[in-house]
Amino acid sequence: MAKFAINLKEGNIEKESELIVGIDLGTTNSLVAYMKEGQAVAVKDQAGKSTLVPSIVHFTADQSVIVGDEAREKLVTDPANTIYSVKRLMGKSYKDIKQVEQYFGYQIIDEDTDSLVKIRVKDKFFTPIELSAEILKTLKRRIETELGETISKAVITVPAYFNDAQRQATRDAGKLAGLDVLRIVNEPTAASLAYGIGLHADDNEVVAVYDLGGGTFDISILQIHNGIFEVLSTHGDTFLGGDDFDRAIVDFWLQEQATGQISSSQSLRLLAEQAKKHLSQHESYENRLEGITFAITRAQFEALVQPLVDRTLASCRRALADAKLKQEQIDKVILVGGATRVPLVKKAVSEFLAARFSTSSTPTKLALGAAIQADILAGNQKDLLLLDITPLSLGIETMGGLMDVIIPRNTKVPAKVGRRYTTSIDGQRNLKVAVYQGERDLVEHNRKLGEFILKGIPPMPAGLPKIEIHFIINADGILQVKAQELRSNVEQSIDVQPQYGISEEEMGRMLLESIQHAQEDMARRALLEARNEANNIILSADKFVQQHAAILSPEEIEITQKLNLALRDAVAGTDKDLINKTMEDLNAYTSPLAHRAMDTAISDAIKGISLQGMDK
Ligand code: ADP
Ligand code: MG
Question: Which atom of ligand 1 is found nearest the CA of 337?
Fold first, then answer.
């Protein structure tokens, strides 16, 4: 059954495809695949050369966006405006990535360590969700060009270790790119599906998925039974991958060859990557760059990367131990990721796991598995029964009327999810919990299911109470929402029936609207979040000046207050970039002052200790 849709921009009627595509949104490379005559196939670029889209987003001087191979070239010439590895930032706060910040060649903003990171490109601020959406848009365009129809549904893969926030960020990126994300599927699950493992109800196997990409490594052990993919254990190293192989070659060349004259370290790195790839097929490599000869043999290369490969095996050992399995109990091994093309890697893994590879000579494409998962969702795989799922997302209202999704749509029921919240005002005694259903960013556009008030929170400074909210949905689809303050144990709950009184048409309409309004919703969310963050900072700057007036000069107090006032003005407006920039200015000015206050506090504390000592 074909459906027709109106293209709002151009006003023509287009054939809307029922096809659900599979997407691998990778750290280094991304790709899109679909089912063609019962086979999963990945879509190539227009030249028909490669299925990979480098996960790189470049902003040109006039702020237009370039994604993929062309953006990759800008890594050398314009690194500050070229964003790579954005997947590492999905769902992360600045606190999460502080230790590894120097890894990124672009500017990451650190005004409030607890809120989600933003990336600054010139005078604009972007979330990792928006940047990932650019990559997804490119993939969407690629498949639409190939098939000549509009695509609006997708399944996207994520690492098994991705938490709730990272998965939600991936869904949001899809929505922003105009894709209804029907399912987020674990990468090792997609790898198994790509081999047809788990497609038959009586399959019963233990599979190890070894994934060595550009910058990350993970190993997952899955138990596959009755169409259920259970992750028994997962281990890895988020800073180990093929890029480290390139760096090892660069270091080798810098030591072995006279390379003083090479003008750009980036071009030497690209040469190293070329050498590495060449050595996957040949015994030696030789090339010239700026008149200098660079050479390396496979044996030399293997000696360089052996320690890195050994580190991946150590992770495998831990994953086996966590799964309480011996090497021989692994039925199948699947290799994923470009760096598993290196013969030494293949050999090491096969020796270690002593298992039959399910892989051909090339690594598995996760997007193919995602396309097969999509086909199952579309009901085209007769062998598998579809489990009961929640048709719309369930969540609560947070500051400023934003929807915080707790159980995403298409989650299997029964399900239980908990999340931690806190208060926003000093001494706050009550907390309203309002439960909503729907896909929009603002609760006012979603469907309210009920609300209650958690009363009797003991008075504490804002941010201190620990309030846990649980969503428990049973096999009959009844949702219980429970809130509990963990310090005092006060508790309150309600039961609601999300499916009661809503028709399928209405659900369809809600989904459609969430895609149509994704852009403006995201803008509203970004503004509200910037305002919330700024309001917190305004309050803490006020508090700071009051508490530490003694160690601040009159001039410092005046400037802090002036910057604080500018931030208040910005918050009153609707320009989120201005709010972010003003917030950054205030932070940049006050953070040395805060350090000084801290040092004073510490030296006071030390004095306190020594005085106590003298008392005895
Ligand atoms: P990710 O999962 O991080 O998005 P990929 O799975 O696409 O990344 O892997 C990218 C890595 O694979 C890069 O380091 C790249 O140099 C490496 N790679 C790609 N092809 C080969 C090859 N033929 N031999 C060795 N390494 C390769
Ligand atoms: Mg990958």
Answer: 6
